Amino acid sequence: MASCPPDASPESRLGCPFGKTHVPLDGEPNQKTWEVPRADLATLLDLSKRLDLDGEVTPIMAWVMVMSHPKVMELSAEDFRKLGVDLVRKVRCYGFGAVMEEFEVRDAMDNVLGASPRTERPNSPPPPSVLDLHRKQSSKMGDSLDYVKICESCPSGDGWGPAVTSETTLNGVPYAPFSKGDKLGRMADWTAEGKDRERGGRAQYNRNFRDQQVYGSSHAVTFNAPPAEDESTFSVVSNVRDSTKTRYGRGAVFTRGRGQRGGQAGGARGGRTQLQRTGAGGRQGYGGGYDRGGRSNTGARGRRFGWKDYDKPARNRDASINVKAEWKLLEEIDFNRLGKLNLDTDEGEDVDDYGFLYYYDRSYDKQPVKGAERKLTPIDRAAYNVTTSSDPVIQELADKDEATIFATDSILSMLMCATRSVYPWDIVISRQGNKVFLDKRDNAALDMVTVNENAIDAPLDAADGSKDTINQPTALAEEATYINHNFANQVVHESDSSKATMTHANPFYNSSEDTDPPASKAYKYRRFDLSTNEEEPVHLIVRTEVDAVQKNAISGDDQLVSIHALNEFDSKAQGSGGALDWRSKLVTQRGAVVATEMKNNSCKLARWTVQSILAKADFMKLGFVSRLNPRSNDKHVVLGVVGWKPRDFANQMNLSLSNGWGIVRTIVDMCLSSSNQEAKFVLVKDPNKSILRLYEVPAGSFDEDEEEVEEPRGEDE
């Protein structure tokens, strides 16, 4: 504390450095004060150092201590203000004036400026540098600045920063989209990784470990309008690469033909293996006959998914054909290269047509009443799936040099949709001079209708651990092929008086040999121009198929219809691909059901769409067929039928026909570049990779296989 001032007059001890004027106060003759003129900083400091203080400083001395600190120039404006407020609070007034405890001043300085060498109490006036230098520097700076140029360089607007655009304003006011339902997370959460720490193998999710919500993430849900019933504008673009499965035991479903190469056992005319049901028991594997297995009691409805699904081993599928040592590998093409190919072509022209068509039953377009769905009825009709080189019409057109390339719609669609395929398949390519024939082997994978081949978690084979026998890929493909064959026959009105007849009769039907009547089918032979220049014309003739015909509601003209069926086995079973329950969602959420099928069956739907476009069909009808009981694959019901224009459906699937034609032309050019004029090739899809391999094989390689396959048939007969 400061000591009391001495009784002696200040003038006897200090003198008056200001020119003293002694003025006694009224009523206090012993108390004296001094009237002094305005003093500068140096004079006040000189007066302060003459005081006899014990551990105390005056405010002016404290200020000098602050200004002489080496870190005072590093202070921000806010810190400087806080230091001033702190020092003012420490001032104490006594009879002789205002003083401050020196240790409190130093503590306040240390709190703001940090520890520094101890600053001694100033004993002399500070050099004029503290105030005078600042004054001089300011004057020099002012002399060197041109304020007119500074003002001219400033922006002309009222503010600064990026320009305001109409996209970020609403009626001239800055605006950002928001939602009342937004959940805002923490600005900085240093413990966010805590929920990812493994504790017993599972991540922790509770109220203390919540995922951070993104601003605006929930506004679509909050302000979403309820979905309308009309989904006519529904459109989905699928970017998922899809695929097809190969070997399926029901391969000989449509093998009736005429003039099959290699000869048919027993002199049969391209016989047909019948779709037959057997009792409860298995199904034959890859043989010619098809026995629909009965109800299986060993299958499970499904399993739990989610945890450690990422750690599952990769599936190793078997190749569709065994590559032999004498085969010569000519080319290996990955799907990325195939996806970049492009060739624009015309819509094609009709060369000839065969067969007849029944009229489509429009009652199937109406949504059935729940519980009164129509059952799928087996109908025995003669259907044919003859390969290209065995088709008598194509052989006749080839002899007339009508085209360079010959194929069927089933084979051509598989090649055009190759980049969507996952399951293995193969195509036999025969070159005869300057002509190329795209063929398939007997009981090939191309004849089968796959199920959920493009699903993320596709159906498991028995080798992969699946115990649900009726939901394995082979059984599902047999079931889907059976459904498509019977569905197309069921949804037409069979009437001899009311049918559309083509120019020629069915080229494969022989009434003396076939006991079943022919199915409603029209074979259209169409030609496409695949030329890249006028000097080297390249044309392709393809045999396309149409299933029915319907009257236009306005003009009354006949419209061609292709008919296919999607089948549901069990929405809760493994391999369902997250499909919705069709019985409850097909009416209310038809768009979601179709979108899921586009994802899980991209290759199959793409092939059907390409076949409809190649045939120049006006409509493509898709039936939705489900099991009557999920645990039994021998009884089905029709839940509904939806129709699309093929090109509109192709746009929804992001299906590029130009890319497909580019793939066809590229493969054909590879075969024509061979020096061998009579060569045979095999195009093989790798079973486990997105790769196509082209092999050159010896002549007659597959004739031996055909004879081996047909010998058991003769014994069975």
From TrEMBL:
Its main location: cytoplasm. mRNA cap-binding component of the eukaryotic translation initiation factor 3 (eIF-3) complex, which is involved in protein synthesis of a specialized repertoire of mRNAs and, together with other initiation factors, stimulates binding of mRNA and methionyl-tRNAi to the 40S ribosome. The eIF-3 complex specifically targets and initiates translation of a subset of mRNAs involved in cell proliferation. In the eIF-3 complex, eif3d specifically recognizes and binds the 7-methylguanosine cap of a subset of mRNAs. One of its GO terms (biological process) is cap-dependent translational initiation. GO terms for cellular component: eukaryotic 43S preinitiation complex; eukaryotic 48S preinitiation complex; eukaryotic translation initiation factor 3 complex. Pfam families: eIF-3_zeta. It comes from Fusarium piperis. It comes from the Eukaryota. Belongs to the eIF-3 subunit D family. This is Eukaryotic translation initiation factor 3 subunit D. Keywords: Cytoplasm, Initiation factor, Protein biosynthesis, RNA-binding. The RNA gate region regulates mRNA cap recognition to prevent promiscuous mRNA-binding before assembly of eif3d into the full eukaryotic translation initiation factor 3 (eIF-3) complex. It is found in: Cytoplasm. Residues 1-22, 255-311 are annotated as: Disordered. Component of the eukaryotic translation initiation factor 3 (eIF-3) complex. Residues 445-459 are annotated as: RNA gate. Residues 260-270, 279-291 have a biased composition (Gly residues). One of its GO terms (molecular function) is mRNA cap binding.
